[in-house]
Amino acid sequence: MSLFFDRPDFGERAVLVHLKLNSESEPEDVGEFEELVRSAGGEVVELIRGSRTAPNAKFFVGTGKLDEIAEVVKRECAELIIFNHNLSPSQERNIEAALQCRVLDRTGLILDIFAMRARTHEGKLQVELAQLHHLSSRLVRGWTHLERQKGGIGMRGPGETQLESDRRMVRDRIKSIQKRLEKVRIQRDQGRQSRLKSDTPTISLVGYTNAGKSTLFNRVTESDVYAADQLFATLDPTMRRLDIPEQGPVIFADTVGFISHLPHRLIDAFRATLEEAASANVLLHIVDASAEDRAVNIDRVNDVLREIDAHALPTLMVYNKIDLMAEGSARIERDQDGRPIAVWLSALTGVGVDLLLEAVSEYLPRKLIHKHIQLQPNHGSLRAALYSHKAVLSETYDDFGGANLEVQLPESDFFRLVKQSGLKLKDLDTI
Predict the structure, then answer these.
(1) Starting at the edge strand that comes first in sequence, how are the strands of the sheet with 102-104 ordered?
(2) What is the pLDDT of residues 185-223, one digit of tens each?
């Protein structure tokens, strides 16, 4: 059972705080911050901006800005103050004490959204683990109930404070969840090993949150994975098998969306899920082509891929949402060698999805087969097709007019040519 209460299904009036800090090399995005709050069900009543050389050690903001926040909270009857920054536990407590209002930082906000979105048992465990790690640093002396001592006959003395009891309970719960997630990780490893043995390639969809990964996944695999125009609509990995022309069966995997400065606790908690991306044969990096800051989002996704050691995997860029662009057209971009490097499409309308499958088929490494086959005199169409693909290395004939061919070609091409000739593998004598 979770240690956390279910969240209400109604929004909260929230005052947002964003500071421009000279000490920050990469400042947080304000538009993304507001979208995060709305995704959590919050009602933004006002956004307070400011600038500082460095955060105030006690309140993060200066005392003047703190008074401004207090005035807005009182005037708007706000229930929550959310900072677009990560606060230390002491800063969070000091602000709450000074303003008498609940305070949430960026990490806490993202954790709350993840808690709302998690649907599977594994996803809920991963979110709770991240929440517990976040909570453990915020269990401090300051509330009266944390100072109670256990008493009674045979139990007098220092005993265990409620604070120590809370900390022990959190530690025990963390260990329990980690053991259960380790079992999940082992099961995933076993699944990956079985896919490797079957030579079935895996294609993982990665990208910035709300880039349209799940919509594209549903379009390609004809699935009904939950997809919505909101951040972190998908947390739990979903896999589907699909037969691609010219290639054969592949596994498509939908993964959690990335975001700038994704809390490390979440990366750790969702490592079992993110490993699906790290172990893929090919990554499809889905990009919202209509976004003004798409180049920045691409860099942010690449940063997370580096953190999970997936940055060196073969990656095909997929520019989605061309239906929202004035001059968007479906196409495949190729390098100087003719190899696909990017596909432009609309997952919502389906325009260009066929081009994606074509590009994926070309992009996946092809397994070459080298074998000897015996063709009967009436198998001339297959013989001609093999020659047209430059697959015949040598040829000899028997006394009955049959042909013995030594062939080498991609396995998918061989199966396709046999099928197109109207034959079946059992019709061929292979050596």
Answers:
(1) 43-52, 13-21, 80-83, 102-104
(2) 777 666 656 655 556 788 888 888 788 888 898 888 887
Q: pTM higher than 0.85 for the full model?
A: no
C-alpha to C-alpha distance for 233 and 210, rounded to whole angstroms = 7
According to CATH, the superfamily of the domain at 198-363 is: P-loop containing nucleotide triphosphate hydrolases (3.40.50.300)
* Class for the domain spanning 13-104: alpha beta
User: 368-430 sits in which CATH class?
Assistant: alpha beta
Rounded CA separation 15/341 (Å): 43
Q: How do the domains of the chain map onto residue ranges?
A: 13-104, 198-363, 368-430
Check if 13-104 and 198-363 are the same fold. Answer: yes
